[in-house]
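>> received
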Amino acid sequence: MRNFNLVIVIAALVALPVGMALGFMRPVEKIIPAEPAETEKEIILLHEVRKGETVWEIAQYYGTTEERILKMNSIENPQKIYPGQRFKIPTGLLWGEIIFHPVKKGESVWKISQLYGAYPYQVIQDNNLDSKGLIKPRQILKVAKVVLPEKKIVASWYGEEFHEKTAANGEKFDMFKVSAAHRVLPLGMRIEVSCQKGIFIPILKIFIPEIKLRNKIVLEITDRGPYILDRQLDLSFKAAKKLGGNWMYVKGLLEVTINSIE
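>> returned
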């Protein structure tokens, strides 16, 4: 996983659009579902409040709203929360197809989860495994895929600072491959990312925002981040160049639409 302190230092140098507040939140190590997986039902996650956190920051981290968290947890005063308190977090994500996977020799809950883009703790909980997730060959596991409804978010990109460092999926991050980091989506999940750009005509030196071109790429979630709360997706350098071109390389941020793929 990327070094959080380095993220803060780099983020401080990035110019933010007017009106966007700069906020940080430490990474959540375990993504734990609050309820068993059930196809087409919203995914609710558990979050244990840490010292200094606010409901607003928690909502931004998970891509939901403060109002939804307050209502789901029957909280009347958002100022009166305390470390160790456990919240249910509505994510806007849905449980998708349920797969029954026959375990093969050498497989682990971690590997199987990444194969389907699922949450390891869903596999552990829904199959009544022990806390270590011990499994054996020929065992049949219930694995729930995750559905990401179409959503507009702000994306950033990362590259040289983390190149060849170990990503959250256990592999070396390669800035020259198409991939992305997300705070909540399962590692191994493949999503579609698209954006619209106006046309720049060099000869006339004019920019025509009304004429729209839609760029689209498919990538895999391989890492965790970004931990700057005003953005929800961190594209690899390669992914950012393919999607937003030099505009995203210079500006650093881009509004994109994300959704899961079949």
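>> The two ends are 27 Å apart (CA to CA).
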